[in-house]
Amino acid sequence: MRNIIATAAATIAVTGMVLGSAATPVFAQGKVYTLKVASFTPKRSATSRWFEKAKIDLAAQSNGRLKLEMYYGSSMGPMPRHYDLARTGVADMAFFQHGVTRGRFPLTELTHSPYLVPPGAKGSLVATQIAADLKDKYLAKEHKGTKLLWVVYNRPSGVYETKKPIRSVADLKGRRYRAPTPTDVAMLKALGALPIGMPATHMAESLQKGTIDGVVTDPMGVFSFKLGSLVNHYTNMFVSVISFGLVMNPKSYANLPPDLQKMIDALGTKESAVRMATMSWSDFPAFTKYMGNLKLETVQMSASAEAEMRSLAKKVMNDRIAGMEKKGLPARKVYGEMKVLAAKYSK
Questions:
Q1: Which of 60, 208, 274, 338 has its CA 20 to 30 A from that of 258?
Q2: CA 194 from centre of chain
Q3: pLDDT tens digits for 247-270?
Q4: Which CATH superfamily is domain 30-155+242-285 in?
């Protein structure tokens, strides 16, 4: 396969040694498989910490036979193409954001619902556990042409503004914000703001040019894409998360020997997904130092504004679910299961 680089090495002679039954495969210890992994995030991002550790772990577990070759910062192609890089075999694996290919993963997008998960770092873990429980039942089917390893989530997002502190729903009217998911687009429209869809990689440039007034992202997004000098006010609102997937090209997987396939399978467990979310969205020294040096005003919305947003969120989700049901998708059933799991894991 063109995307798995197999390097032949010295042949190992097996003499006077019984390796289990006659059906037990014997692998050439010197044969190296290198998987090209496309990631839209820069190497300095929080998510790269998991991939760098996975590189080390897989190399150690395989005695150097399985290697990850990382392509950070959209170096293999623009952010919206990352899923297709793995699907078409340009990359062996790809880390991508669902929201930039809108409508392609409709049931997965239900996890972006406002107020589904609790605020703060716990929201990331709750959402990741929900997705892990529903992966095989619903979500994997949406990732056609790939092997879905996991879906993970950031901390719930808020609005980072350049000039205007947002204290009420009225303050949002006419403001232009980068919106990372279709649900965020619908919510911002309902709130009177002007959502603008763009990849995270374009946020800094758009803020610098003044073509947007702010962004919907989480603190790690501010750190990863160096937005700290470009935003001045932060308002935590409508508590929504963003999903990210790791997928693999099926042929790349099939061309691995069984023992290495098991190592890939281990990356796709619920426990592995939770570890990834924990490592990527928990504080670490470089992040803490960066955020601590920002002159960022944290704005609290009033109770009445919060109640108004929750009311609008219910309408937005009812409308979205109704539209999906018309297309024959079991959106109401899936969303109901998500809410049950959210209550379970939020305790």
A1: 274
A2: 24
A3: 999 999 999 999 999 999 999 999
A4: Bacterial extracellular solute-binding protein, family 7 (3.40.190.170)
- Separation of alpha carbons 48 and 64, rounded Å: 21
Intervals of CATH 3.40.190.170 along the chain: 30-155+242-285, 157-241+286-345
Query: Euclidean distance between the first and final Cα of the chain, in Å?
Result: 47
How many whole angstroms separate alpha carbon 253 and alpha carbon 10? 24
Across 42-169, the runs of DSSP E, i.e. the strands, are 66-71, 93-97, 147-153, 157-161
pLDDT at residue number 42: 92
CATH number of 157-241+286-345: 3.40.190.170
Here the tokens at position 79 are 């952010």
The per-residue pLDDT for range 109-134, each reduced to its tens digit, is: 999 999 999 988 899 999 999 999 99
Q: What is the DSSP string of 239-300?
A: EE--EEEEEE-HHHHHTS-HHHHHHHHHHTSHHHHHHHHHHHHS--HHHHHHHHT---EEEP
- pLDDT reported for residue 148: 98
- Residues 323-332 have a mean pLDDT of 97
Q: Residue 229: which of 160, 168, 276 has the closest Cα?
A: 160
Q: What is the spatial distance between Cα 181 and Cα 165, in angstroms, rounded to a whole number?
A: 23
pLDDT digits (tens, 9 = 90+) for 6-30: 443 333 333 333 233 333 333 445 7
**108 φ, ψ (degrees, to nearest 5):** -60, -40
**Two tokens at 96?**
């991508």
Burial class (CB in 10 A: 0-12, 13-18, 19+), 342: buried
CA atoms within 13 A on the CB side of 181: 30
pLDDT tens-digit series, residues 26-84: 344 579 999 999 999 999 898 999 999 999 999 999 999 999 999 999 999 999 999 99
As a whole number of angstroms, the distance between CA 114 and CA 123 comes to 11
Nearest to 110 by CA among 98, 92, 94: 98
